[in-house]
Amino acid sequence: MVLTIIDIIFVFLMSFLILKFSRTKAVSFLGTVGTAYVIGILYSIIVFALRKAGIFESRDTTALELLGYLGIAVGIPLLLFSSNIKYVFKLSGRVFLAYMLLIVSAVIVSIVWFLLYTRKITDGDILTGMAVGLYSGGTVNLNAVAGFFRLDQQTIFMANLSDMIFGGIFYVFLLFLAKPFTGLFLKKGQKEEILPDIELSAEDEVGKFNIKSPGVIRNFFISILIVVISAGVGFVIFLLKGQKEGTLIDCLLPAILIGTAILGLAASFIPKVNSVKENGTMGQFFVTVFCCAVASMFDFTNFGVVTLKLFILYSGITVSIFLIHLLLCRLFKIDSETMIVTSTAGIYGPAFIPGVTRAINAEYLLAGGLITGSLGYAIGTFLGILVVWICRIF
After folding, report:
1. Domain limits of the chain?
2. Is there a contact between 111 and 384 (Cβ–Cβ < 8 Å)?
3. Of 67, 99, 130, 214, which is least packed with CB atoms within 10 Å of its CB?
């Protein structure tokens, strides 16, 4: 009981400090998610050592697991509140087409990897769906797909860790080498007019928070209400299924993860909800809670073998998606800069768009990148779940 209380305090305290110091070099180098995983791993090592020393006899990680799922559930609508989905139809045809080609690439590549490699791994179908959620949306979608199918926390953690390690390497490629590489196959982009009525500040505000700002507390409680409504739907499904033993959580969790995505997206069309600049920071805080909680209960058994398999899987899928996207963009005559920005939007999400557009001198694509990245957050979970069901046909 004492260790459980310490676990909960640690996760909330570390998540708060990570967001508070997110703009420092130490945190920005790894990102908030990466920092949360590193700190969580270090904490799990300390707990492991204390248990070996006999200070703590046993450890119940149920509270951490529930805390993690609560974090991802509350974080999803908050992240979607400030999404720019309503501007999708203002995108140029070239940007929208390039992003759709990225989605097609992610689905095709992931299914091919499943047929050739992933089906030999335990829960390979779920891992494949997680990859589609990740590379069409982001980390939050990967974890939502995993939660929907009740994947064990150990595997979820190692999937995130594998992506984080190779993702960091590949992001450097996007910043410095992608433009000259894609320029060998694609034409140079032509600057287009920046969409004038889009306030591109949500992702830049991460780390800044003022509880006195109008709408902050209101949006937080709206997010909680969305979780409660979604859980209520799950409970009704549970009752209709005859209240079979062990099915309550299996009804609640999928309903919460799907419901929060749908209702969070719907709420983003409400101007007062959408305009709160702290939405991104609040959402990122709860995603950080999830990551820190998952890493904090890590078990080191078979770490090397399983992690290597997942590292091969996610690094292979990342490179394959990029190459297939490149091929499709050549066939459809998409320019190099648009291909790179939409690839970043799908593989990494909106937060990484400003850095890439600056690096490749394509700031005119900033709006398009943020909009398509937000679209990925909205559809990534559903795409991932669909791909899992497709994989189960084979």
Report:
1. 2-189+225-391
2. no
3. 214
